[in-house]
Amino acid sequence: MGTCRMALSQLPVEATDDAFWDQFWADTATSVQDVFALVPAAEIRAVREESPSNLATLCYKAVEKLVQGAESGCHSEKEKQIVLNCSRLLTRVLPYIFEDPDWRGFFWSTVPGAGRGGQGEEDDENARPLAESLLLAIADLLFCPDFTVQSHRRSTVDSAEDVHSLDSCEYIWEAGVGFAHSPQPNYIHDMNRMELLKLLLTCFSEAMYLPPALESGSTNPWVQFFCSTENRHALPLFTSLLNTVCAYDPVGYGIPYNHLLFSDYREPLVEEAAQVLIVTLDHDSASSASPTVDGTTTGTAMDDADDFQFILKGIARLLSNPLLQTYLPNSTKKIQFHQELLVLFWKLCDFNKKFLFFVLKSSDVLDILVPILFFLNDARADQSRVGLMHIGVFILLLLSGERNFGVRLNKPYSIRVPMDIPVFTGTHADLLIVVFHKIITSGHQRLQPLFDCLLTIVVNVSPYLKSLSMVTANKLLHLLEAFSTTWFLFSAAQNHHLVFFLLEVFNNIIQYQFDGNSNLVYAIIRKRSVFHQLANLPTDPPTIHKALQRRRRTPEPLSRTGSQEGTSMEGSRPAAPAEPGTLKTSLVATPGIDKLTEKSQVSEDGTLRSLEPEPQQSSEDGSPAKGVLSWKSKLPLQTIMRLLQVLVPQVEKICIDKGLTDESEILRFLQHGTLVGLLPVPHPILIRKYQANSGTAMWFRTYMWGVIYLRNVDPPVWYDTDVKLFEIQRV
């Protein structure tokens, strides 16, 4: 390959000079890594600038070889080698075609004599663009007997299976959705699939070279064509990818330490499959030009409970993998593609409401919740994992819009995954709130935009929480204390929202779950001064000014005192910041909570009624004092003040009568107390449901491609090319 490379950047070479071009794919001993080493970036760019016709011919010839391989069925070893080498070469070259705007249309132009009907010259006006020929060839090759799938021939005497009449639905790669038969694992087939999927992902990656367009309507033509009815393999391939991911067992068939004995060649294929899957699903979020297949291609048409169970169990098993590490270190192989799995889970829930309802139908949803909370807690101090924090929170926001999620959280939490959080005895709701408290009080500064989301999730589930632990009750009051300090309330126009969310949580629990929540009621009584301070919040400009001055001297993000951290769980390690020099990709800003969610009111019969969004108050109309006045009058303090008015004298009387300093007696009194008829009429439950919008669609696209960029390092497909969708930064 070396000598012919040199000739490429010199004189134009005729397309008919087969002896010259064949040198590029004839080599037998190459791997994709070799191709990357042999063809340096500088040379590809030199050919592009100095001999554009040679680069065009190289691409056209390589695609032609793939088309021929797909047509013939790749029977000989030589043909297989040529297909793999062309595939590697195109994977190497495509990013350099995408990075140059002048070349962007090249693959969508037609090539002489490549008619759709294959009739040669006279069919030119009906010719297929090069991109379409390439995508269809890849699809055919992914279901090529004895190359990427098991042959169904009984004996070698049988004639070879005809590529054109082959029904790829019978060749799905793995048992699972819509396919019961699990083919024998085959290392060579897995490797060949992986090379072709890497090329497919590279084709789709043109999206990385366009700046983030705010209208998410910009469809990716590569993905759009690949998922259309033109590609007869779209559905079997989608199913193959989904089944390959969800059936994967990194533990090594249940035997601890098995992975140390056998190298696992399946994982790289599973990663590649997960990445191709989420990119094809992203296409659906934009307006689709081929609705006929899209419903089915992207799993949005699935509604079979067995299929859902298979997918949910598979994703939960893989997400829980890093947690298994902590019981028997190194006993299982630690997978690295949890971010792709989270995007996949998000896409499936967001597109297929039946799947979302299935997830929430049983306590299986907790097998997704616990790993997400583990990742959130683990990544909270790491600036390079801000994207992971966001997607975890977005998934929980989506789930929290459904009543069943809140109900499921009441299940006792007994698994003891070592996490850097205080020890508590309680439910999954306690775990969620304790982790959220930890993120807010000891995460890094760039997580502040997520506070609204975190508290919205707690508000959404609060009417259904039957009994919070004392640890959790104290954490919620600590957050209220921190967020209601005068400097915090006055230092940004939106900060008071956090206090409103917390008051809403307390009101929901007092009105709808008073009976089991004596711990929270007791904590509210103990911290009653915070509520009185809020009711008497100063609104005069001099006091506000003074509070802000005081803050400038001590810019502590949130008061960490008074939180009584308590000991962390045994075996846990503190959340660590990113290693200096870690690469990360930039993300677009996420929309505010008012754009991200839509308010609904829960009616008597449990149905939801959408509410009109409230007009936004502009804080520009004068001084901060004016803004404070307008929201202070709306603080929902009536229920809590009434509770304090009724219970504080009773609790004080018990303490005086019995000379008590013991909490248990007071808690016993509160457990048996009742406020029936004493509180204001219960307010209707408000739920803020996630609503899809162009801002989050764009965020997901940049996050997804950023993950794919950073995870593909061997070979480094996009490294050092001029991507526009995000910036690559070092921590």
Quick structural overview:
The chain is mainly alpha-helical and 731 residues long. Helix content is 53%, strand content 4%.
What does this structure look like?
With 731 residues, the protein is mainly alpha-helical. It has a domain at 363-577 and 597-612 and 624-689. The protein is 53% helix and 4% strand. The protein contains 32 helices and seven strands. It has helices spanning 2-8, 18-26, 32-38, 41-50, 52-72, 77-98, 130-141, 187-204, 221-226, 234-246, 266-285, 291-297, 305-319, 321-324, 338-351, 353-361, 366-379, 386-400, 403-408, 428-442, 451-461, 470-483, 486-491, 496-512, 518-526, 528-535, 541-553, 593-596, 624-632, 638-658, 663-672, 694-711; strands at 110-115, 127-129, 583-585, 597-602, 608-610, 686-690, 728-730. The strands form three sheets. The chain has a three-stranded antiparallel β-sheet. A two-stranded antiparallel ribbon has the order 1-2. Helix 13 (305-319) runs antiparallel to helix 15, helix 21 (451-461) packs parallel to helix 24 (496-512) and helix 22 packs antiparallel against helix 24. The chain is elongated and about 100 Å long. Residues 113-122, 285-298 and 559-563 have low confidence and may be disordered.
Main β sheet profile: 3 strands, antiparallel
- Percent helix, as a range, is 40-55%
Distinct helical segment count: 32
SS-based class: mainly alpha
Q: Write down the Rg.
A: 30 Å
Arithmetic mean pLDDT: 85
Q: Which strand order do you get reading across the main beta sheet?
A: 5-4-6
Shape: elongated
Q: Which residues sit in consecutive blocks of at least 5 with pLDDT less than 50? A: 113-122, 285-298, 559-563
How much of the sequence lies in strands comes to: under 5%
Tell me the total number of β-strands.
7
- End-to-end separation: 38 Å
